[in-house]
Design goal:
Blueprint: H1 3-6, E1 10-13, E2 20-27, E3 30-35, E4 40-54, E5 57-62, E6 66-69, E7 75-79, E8 85-92, H2 94-101, E9 114-115, H3 118-127, H4 137-154, H5 168-180, H6 188-195, H7 199-210, H8 214-231, H9 236-242, H10 248-259, H11 263-274
Antiparallel strand pairs: 1-2, 2-8, 3-7, 4-5, 4-6, 4-7, 4-8, 6-9
Length: 275
């Protein structure tokens, strides 16, 4: 058996901060079932080949290539070569991309899912310079600004789009409320009271600005909290309860749908990453 085939699968992440989260991982075979995130995912393949199904097509990212996955797009992941693959990924909240571009643009859509992009690779690798130590605030701000501009340049419509009619501040208020109150039941009445918007108007604006629905954003905050607790060694049931899920099975269904693996598998991989 070659040394490459003897490497263990692992996942290592940092704590989400300032709308960003970093992940580095290695897999020798199957990695993720179908799932989707409420964030942009920008990644750099470090070795091997990462294969995945995305937007109706099979894709492969080989060493030195970069990936740009959009919010709420279903995808999976597995090794495309016998030696497996390793990669770095940054998850960026769409809200940050909007802020980075200014209010005259909506979310950019990049049609080139996998490309050899030296500029993006350098941005991603620079964000991992001190990993797993936290990114400094100024470093995080600079990364968001640079990545937002880069995505805009590669988007299918590089012209500014007028978004001034969208209720930006009201969506921001809803987002902040969901992020703070994720561990309890939140209703549409709560969001209507906070924003002054009809629930359907809010839902449309939320998706236009953040690329997902208020409910999926809320579930995402719960999952992020649960994943951080499991990465720190907390038990699955305890993590589910502390993060606002009805029970462990409820968390498991959402976790697998969002991350493509079960909570138990993640806890195992995270344990290897801590070793």
């Amino acid at each position: 058996m070659t040394p490459a085939l003897m490497l263990k699968d692992f996942i290592a992440t940092d704590e989400p901060a300032q709308g960003l989260q970093r992940l580095v991982a290695r897999f020798g075979g199957h990695a993720y079932d179908q799932h989707r995130h409420e964030t942009y995912a920008v990644g750099h393949t470090l070795s091997g080949a990462q294969a995945f199904h995305y937007r109706g097509s099979d894709r492969v990212s080989v060493q030195h290539e970069c990936m740009v996955l959009h919010p709420d797009e279903v995808h999976d992941g597995h090794a495309g070569v016998p030696e497996g693959f390793s990669y770095r990924m940054l998850y960026v909240e769409p809200w940050l991309v909007c802020r980075g571009l200014g209010r005259d643009r909506l979310l950019p859509f990049v049609p080139g899912v996998v490309e050899r992009d030296a500029e993006l690779a350098a941005l991603i690798d620079g964000a991992f310079a001190d990993f797993p130590n936290p990114m400094e605030p100024l470093q995080a701000d600079a990364f968001v600004a640079d990545v937002a501009a880069h995505l805009a340049r590669r988007s299918d419509d590089a012209k500014p789009q007028r978004a001034t009619a969208l209720p930006v501040e009201k969506v921001a208020a809803a987002r902040s409320f969901l992020a703070e109150e994720f561990d309890r039941q939140v209703t549409s009445d709560d969001l209507e009271r906070i924003t002054g918007l009809d629930r359907f108007e809010l839902s449309r604006a939320f998706r236009q600005l953040l690329g997902t629905s208020p409910h999926r954003y809320l579930v995402g905050r719960r999952l992020a909290a649960a994943r951080a607790r499991m990465a720190a060694g907390e038990g699955l049931a305890e993590a589910a309860d502390a993060s606002g899920f009805a029970d462990q099975s409820h968390m498991t269904r959402h976790f697998r749908a969002r991350y493509g693996i079960t909570p138990g598998r993640f806890a195992e991989l995270a344990g290897v990453g801590r070793a």
